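Posting for a labmate who doesn't have an account.
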Amino acid sequence: MDENNGAERRYRLTRRQFLAASSAAAAIAACGPAATPNPSGAATVEPTASPGPALKIGQLLPFTKVYAELGNSMKRATDLYLKQKGNKLANRPVTVVYEDEANDPVVGAQKTQKFIDSDRVDLMMGIVATPIAYAVRNAIDAAKLIFIETNAGGNALTRTTTNCTPSCKSKYIFRTSFSSYQISYPIGEYFATQKGVKEVFTFVADYGFGNESAADFTSGFTKGGGKITGGLKAPLGSADFLPYVTQIKAQNTKDIYSFFSGTDAINYIKAWTQLGMPAAGYKMNGAGFLTEQDVLKEVKEQANGATTSLFWAVTLDNAENKAFVDAYQKEYSLLPDVFAVQAWDGMQAVDLALQAVKGDTSNKDAFIAALESVKFKSPRGDFEFDKETHNPIQDMYIREVKVQSGQAVNTIVGKVARVTDPGK
């Protein structure tokens, strides 16, 4: 894709617009971590003086189908991070091997085996869809390959599960994104206890993460006293959302909780608008990917008023986020999204851990211990891994889409601090 074409340039947020959008979140964000201006994180350990051997990273990302733009966003962030580091981490020249996961667990497993057998990568990163992450887990564990998961949020990937089905945590797997629980449970509880919502109807993508998201939201919402009145699912990659939204409009519950991402989210919101849901009193809510930047740049004000939860927003008011957004915009003439942040933080975690072991990845246990100990200031706020699960500990923000300075952006209206996945 041409990242510098005129259409994408229109989505550029000027410095003035960014500050205006940030002002609504300033009061909450002021309670967040102390700010430092370095967008690449606080590197505290100096690399060795002499150049080390080349470091090879395998990145398995979607470059086709429903999540293609998510993969492109992660690649842009990875390339930008390495550019800022002179294409070296801990004084080791870096080569990144990109492969397309094609939203297919079989393809994902084949490409992972290629990383292990043919490319002989030092570590692996990426994967957007939960079924693919589950499908490659055993190969990664058997090969003792360090894997930084930069999106897929399936709960089981960082939890102990019976018979390891469909997946389970591995000492070699870390996650710089989230778990389904972290995204979906807090907003359920928030709706019931803070927003006074009594009833919700769910509508999610019918695959691993979509189903987990509905279950986690339901758990938080019902614990807070709310009632789920019904639910609906659509296959991943659905071409037409009008039949589904028609069914939603035919039932009486006005608050709808949804999980969709990528082109599915775009098509859903367009159908929502086409059928006049806002005028009929229906309210769009969901996991944050529903209104992330990759979606908003397509649907614009059609998502106005939607409430979602996520651990980041482009308007989040801290120095690391401002520096990251500025650097990304300068490089690509495009606003970053949460997928870029996840890849960026994955590179930060690897960078700092490599520095701690002086670039030596031969001792896997030492490298794992270094990763478990990294803490840094991220565009999302304070970042650290839960040493028990290797899932991140992070703040979760309640966001509302508002049109500011002519541009639809997610503004922060609430926060649930230091959300930890309950897995063991």
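Reply:
Got it, the structure tokens are right above this. Residues 1-13, 15-48 have pLDDT under 50 and may be disordered.
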